[in-house]
Amino acid sequence: MSTNDQTPRSRERAAILLLVGVALLMPPLVQIFEINVKIAGIPFTLVYLFGVWAILIAGTAWLTRTVSDRDRDSGDVG
Amino acid sequence: MSLSGDVLLGVCLIYVAILFGVAFVVDRSARRGKFRWLRSPAVYTLSISVYCTSWTFYGAVGSAARNGLEFVTIYLGPTLVFVGWWWLLRKLVRLGQEQRITSIADLISSRFGKSPSLAVIVTLIAATATTPYIALQLQSVTRSYQAVAGEGDSLQTAFFVAVGMAIFTILFGTRNVDANERHHGVVAAIAIEAVVKLVALLAVGLFVVITAGGVGEIFADVPSEVVYGGTDIFGPRWVVLTFLSATAIICLPRQFQVTVVENADQRHLETASWLFPLYLFGMCLFIMPIALVGLKTMPVGSNPDLYVLTLPLAAGRDELALLAFLGGFSSATSMVIVAAIAVSTMISNHIVMPIALRFMSTGREVSGDVRNLLLTSRRISIALILGLGFLYFQLSGGSDALAAIGLIAFVGVAQFLPSLLGGIFWKGANRSGALGGMVVGAAFWAYTLFLPSFDGAVLLSRDVLEAGPWGIAFLRPQALMGLEGIDPLVHAVVWSLGGNVLVFVSISTLTRQSPIEKVQAIQFVDVFSGSHAAAAPFEGTSGDAEALFVLAQRILGREPARVLFDRLAYQQGNPRGLPQVTDQMLQRLERELAGSVGAASAHAMLTQIVGQTPIGMTQLINIADETQRLIETSRQLREKSAEFENAAQQLREANELLRSIDKRKDDFLSQVSHELRTPMTSIRSFSEILLETQDISEPQRSRFLAIINEESNRLTRLLDEILDLSHLEAGSLEVPCTELDARQVAQSAVDTIAGLALKRRIVVLRDLPNGTLQVMGNADRLRQVLINLLSNAIKYNTSPEPEISLRAETDGYHTTIDVIDNGGGVSRIEAHTIFEKFARGERGGLDRGAGLGLAISRALMQAMGGDLTVEFQADGTSFFRARLLVADARANAAE
Questions:
Q1: Which of A63, B271, B440, B507 could form a disulfide with B41 if both were Cys (CB 3.0 to 4.6 A apart)?
Q2: Helix, strand or coil for residue B881?
Q3: Of A17, A43, A58, the CB nearest to B227
Q4: Using CA atoms, how far apart are residues B255 and B48, in angstroms rounded to an integer?
Q5: Using one digit for the tens of pLDDT, what is the confidence trace for B444-499?
Q6: Listed residue (B66, B58, B401) closest to B201, CA to CA
Q7: Cβ-based burial of B786 (10 A; exposed 0-12, middle 13-18, buried ≥19)
Q8: How far apart are the C-alpha atoms of B65 and B79, rounded to whole Å?
Q9: Chain A residue at shortest CA distance from B80
């Protein structure tokens, strides 16, 4: 079997991350967060966008780490 | 230090010299196999950040000042693509390495049957779309230079910037034709530039925030419409911009170059998947504050695109301004270098090379130094690309915002997306579809966005833009078919990509693929399944190893070609001399050459030398079939295992049946011995009494003898029955059938049991039709059956007013004779077992019978071609039905 079938769980998790990212950053959901409020002096929408962005980055970093760990565990370096 | 044009020029030259030195050292070390750090994920990620051009460095702030948060979309799209790297980017990188892809044109042409025409189309679109993007860099470098050094002739400045960049790129990118088109030196240089531009932007951002007195202070009195850039920030334009930027990170020639072609290790992508979005995040962090402070503090009418530079200048921080200038310069040069290398490679491989091939060779010879031709054509292409960029800058007047120019390029390269995605995920996509889709999409793009961007200067005059060609309003470029009132960008995307996808899918589904397309489709779509590498047997291609060697020397260089051919020969078990020209060898060679000149050209070159398709057409089909066969085999295996399971199940059932039959045989034997034992016991005991008792009276003796006689008869009858039954079951008892009158037989059966019936006071009614009932059967056996049924009915009738009726009917095919009694019949449960041997009905306890009668009767009926069944009436009572074929019906059926 090819190596890509060995990490289906992580793959599904990556799907969630991408879907959540698209959902949260695209209308109509993003419109919910178009609120004229400030957090620590910064407009809420700005905080929201950069926050989602940061979470996506952290989530991807965490997911790829688990993927590569498993690759190393199974001795698959290709 | 006060900044002047001369200082800037000097700093730029020193900076370029340093970059060039780094590239030179790295290239030389890389050739010796040193500098492992260069092949690190971090360097790979930094090289991808060539995405952040001066559009980002200067234009993002301008965009934020004009349209608020909208600038974020340009970085959210790539972030989403990298977050989802597992599907798309991973597949692209794998394909790039497996197929030795040199550019996006190479990938698309390679996928669709190594089509040269497709490669030309992609190259032309890429070159055209890159032009405004290059112009954007020229414009920003020119403007930033002017902002620092004071106003001058901007055209003249832009011209020198273009010339300088062309020389710079030629020096950098075309020193050699690298195997696989990897440029280690260039990658190292742009990695350094990536660090410079990030540091510069962060430094300016921090400076702005600190001098403004904190982030809270900056946002304090800003009206919300400045942040949101109008009322409908999250509208269609938001979606379209995100989509376009996501597309661009894949389809821009330079992004494809750094992400796919320059990738040294597929695992680097894992790191880039989060590190690159993080880089973008860092680049964007201070965009909004810089833009807001610029809007607040800079004089009205100053260009917001230059806030990054003018804010430090206004504050008198010349060293920071210089850093910012270098950051912008880095952004621009790295983009220009990589884009020019990528596009010039495409032009030389896909346009110059095929033309040269046509002119250079007559027959089997390839003459001329291909390497020199490639290098020269690339150098000329680079000059041409920058020249076009300059021309665009001049014609468009350089007045637009940077972001608007960049987006024109984005929509242009987005035309590759349908063919690219269709190509690697959909086996049915074909060459004609890709060609049609891209041509239509590019035409719409040019008409609705690219040409209007000149604002009447090129092809489409201002009148045409406003009123439509020949005054036809619904052909207006920016309101096609009367589609008015939407953003021009969204308008262009809807028409160009909509048309592209529609044509691509329609033609792909309506036309056929050539064999080579089928092979490539499987290799591309199933790149991870690994089944495509099936080697087909050698088919006897006529080829000239000498000519191939000469060709390889010209393309790869003398030494690499010798090494390659030695290796090929060695692998064939032939350590000396040239390798045999086999299909495998040709495939291998084609792939190596493709790494330098692209798949279509490599394919064409080998075809010319070998005199036929390097891979025989039948073999191509074989390879395709091989894959199909593997799929088929696995499907069959699944079916086989299902069949096997099925057979095992049947076997289990048969076994179960055998067990039950075996049990029934044992039961039968024990029943038989029991049945035989009973009369035997009485015979033995009475005969013993007769033998041992002397004083026995004569009447008693004769009574005993009568019992012995009766029991012996019963025994004989029982044995006869068992014998009959076993013969019947074995099919060895002949029951000769003749035409007979069933009515007569029924009459005689009733007559026979009349005595018994009378003794039991049972009325036997006859319900027989008039005339004869001609059936096929055996009169004696039929009578036996009927007597058995009638006597059973008499014996087991418990009704106070017992009554039996015999009814015969015929429907022309079957004649049925029913024996009905009012004694209750048999239950439905009994009906299943009543014909078993030794089975007795519930009423059977009243009389001792062997329980073989019904079994024999049924076997007899079946031997005569009929049957004996238990039928149920509506009221739940049952009766026996003997059925026989009507004589004529049997004759009919035999015909």
A1: B271
A2: strand
A3: A43
A4: 7
A5: 999 999 988 888 777 788 888 888 888 888 888 888 888 888 888 999 999 999 99
A6: B58
A7: buried
A8: 23
A9: A18
